[in-house]
Design brief:
The chain is α+β, with helices and mostly antiparallel strands and 353 residues long. It folds into two domains: 39 residues; 262 residues, no CATH class. It is 36% helix and 18% strand. It has a three-stranded antiparallel beta sheet with strand order 1-4-5, with no helix packed on it. Helix 11 packs across helix 13. It is globular and about 65 Å long.
């Protein structure tokens, strides 16, 4: 039997009084279980530090931001375009698929540190104090901004350049081979359906897949994501799949992008917004690929899918303390892969080349 009661007790973390819920229930032997939410700044995604290091190594968030034109006035904003983009892709990689998740994630000091916020506790904000990151509505402006938006637009003023995104992903791929020329490069192209359950723009019924949806075209070279072109589903992809798509690696990467990194989460009403979401999932996949190919090379997780890496390395409890000079992250003592984590972090932090 569970007992739910309100309680009042000191909360050292906030130097105040805890007034949230407390739950008690029958336990083992003479001891009962008691639960509340007074532990303070604790993150369930301590392994996100690996993602931060991977991002720093290839400059992903910073370079992605250069693919967006930000018409907002800097003196009136709390979050730069680079910070918004980093928050979005650093949310996807550990498993937070939609904008609504950021209602609570926006208060996570560890995610704020990953994103690069100068104040990861949000205590210096005049509005939304204690919330260092962007709210879902602010974060959604990346996807809602129209192609013809300008500085005169009312709210959505961050315009994506899809051509610049394609150039960036190709550049990232080429950089992986600096100093070593491959004897052959095979680029795989493959369509894969995204089933829709709403009234999204350009939704079309596809007879082969027997659903309403989109039919994006993906480009990969091995495990490296190169491009995604969102397309309406009034295109015949069946013949192509029957003749060509026996390549297991390509199928694994698309599955990783769509299922583990939520590339099939096309819940925006606009076609353009869903196209941007597809690119964000591909960007999150670049973080995973960087962790896997550099941090985990030669380990038991060197070929693991994003979902496996997330479960075994990213999802670890962390207590976060912020001082003037450092952000102190204390991971769980019971974490079973401490050595692997430290080795991966050291590899990602090592100078490239």
């Amino acid at each position: 039997m569970l007992w739910l009661q309100s309680t009042t007790r000191p909360n050292p973390e906030e130097r105040g009084v805890y007034t949230g819920p407390k739950i008690e229930w029958e336990g083992s032997g003479r001891r009962r279980f008691a639960l509340d939410f007074s532990a303070g700044r604790v993150s369930s995604d301590g392994g996100g530090l690996l993602l931060r290091q991977a991002d720093d190594r290839i400059g992903l968030s910073r370079r992605l931001a250069a693919c967006f034109r930000d018409y907002r006035k800097p003196e009136y904003i709390d979050h730069t375009a680079a910070e918004l983009i980093a928050q979005r892709i650093h949310g996807l990689a550990p498993g937070y698929e939609d904008l609504n998740d950021h209602e609570e994630l926006s208060k996570d000091p560890l995610l704020a540190a990953q994103v690069g916020k100068a104040d990861p506790t949000g205590q210096t904000r005049l509005q939304s104090r204690g919330q260092p990151l962007a709210s879902p509505s602010t974060l959604g402006r990346l996807e809602r901004t129209k192609a013809d938006a300008t500085a005169a637009s009312r709210y959505e003023k961050i315009v994506v350049d899809f051509d610049a995104l394609e150039d960036l992903f190709l550049t990232l791929f080429i950089e992986q081979y600096e100093g070593r020329e491959p004897s052959r490069i095979v680029i795989d192209l493959d369509p894969s359906d995204i089933e829709l359950h709403g009234q999204q723009e350009q939704r079309v019924y596809h007879g082969y897949y027997r659903n309403h949806g989109y039919l994006p075209m993906y480009a990969y070279c091995g495990e490296y994501p190169l491009s995604v072109e969102l397309r309406p589903a009034n295109i015949d992809g069946a013949l192509y799949e029957d003749l060509y798509c026996a390549r297991g690696e390509m199928e694994n990467r698309i599955k990783e992008q769509q299922l583990d990194l939520f590339g099939d989460r096309a819940s925006c009403h606009t076609f353009r917004g869903n196209h941007i979401r597809s690119w964000f999932s591909m960007a999150a996949q670049w973080l995973i690929v960087t962790v896997r190919t550099i941090g985990l090379e030669g380990t038991e997780l060197a070929r693991a899918q994003a979902g496996t890496i997330r479960t075994k390395l990213f999802k670890v409890g962390a207590i976060v303390a912020v001082s003037v000079r450092r952000i102190y992250v204390r991971l769980s003592s019971a974490f079973p892969r401490q050595r692997l984590f430290c080795r991966a972090l050291a590899r990602l932090a090592a100078p490239s080349g």
